[in-house]
Amino acid sequence: MPTPTPVELVPRIGEPVREIETPAIVADLDIMEANMARYDRIAAEHDVNLRSHIKTHKIPDIAHRQVALSTGNGILCQSLGEVEVMAQNGIEDIYLSYMVVQPTKLDRLLWLSEKLPAFATTVDCRGNVDPLQAAAAERGVTVDVVLELDIGMGRVGATLDEIAEFGEYVAKQDNLNVTGLMCFEGHVKKGLETRDELEAACLEAMDEVADGVERLEEAGIPIDDVKVGSTGTSRFSAKHDIVTEINPGMYAFNDANVMALPIGVGSEDCALRILTSVISTPAPDRVIVDGGSKTISMDTSTAPAAVGRDDLEYTNYSEEHGWIDAEPGHGLSVGDRLTFIAPHVCTTINQHDTLIGVRDGVVEEVWSVQARGKVR
Question: Judging by DSSP bridges, how do beta strands 24-28 and 272-283 pair with one another?
């Protein structure tokens, strides 16, 4: 972790939110807890497991809270480094939804597979199956693997036409144990304007997943676990009979991108807030805040949304500056505070050492983002 500065060393429990130095990211605990409970109810209603994707927050304490509340039994990680942090902090059931191929990383993966009570990783082609099998055979262990199916995302995963043959190949490996199928249907959200359209698209995608499962089982490969979903799709995909587990990540916090989806999420459902201060008012129609691209991740085309100020528009940024367009007479002065909702919560949290949990205007939790930057 980077060397903490004095402000990060000072105990801040009980401090009023208005006194937190900016820029900073805070999580409204009431909203966060309500969001987690909402998705747990969705999972329970449709009799599926909820395995939360912790790449959003990278904080072991929040992961433990999700596991304790959840109808599922574990978490999802996107890198070995994240798995290691979570395992070191007592999480015992972890699925790595990523392919590992480098020899040194395979050593780390095998160590985790031996130490964790429940661990599985992902494969989607012979190119990542072969090195995993070789490493597991050399070590004399068996690794649980999940097959990834691509139904249109166009990123990774075997296609429907490839999945049966690929599954047969994996099943023949002496040191790999196929435990299920995974699919990410995030692509279906694009261009849809209504909730009904999104639900129909999710269920149509799940029909394709069911086709993949059928092809695998006809090839003699039983698939008892089907993992799918994102925050924007899992509430609908969970309704399909083929699904056994949903894997949302952003749901605990939400962001401006989630608000843009036709699923009824508003600013009142966004737990993560970015606290900024006005540092300059250089023109009647322009305000500058201390939240630029090093504070707010700008990896999407969606702009940060000002909380409670529809008259303000975040229009531009540099590393430490945020440009806010405002109507003359906006009433803001240097030193005033503005709060924003992040365009993308996952990459925004990853830019900070600390996430502050607040309730009723007071600091209640101070979390180190322990898996920040753990991309290897």
Answer: antiparallel
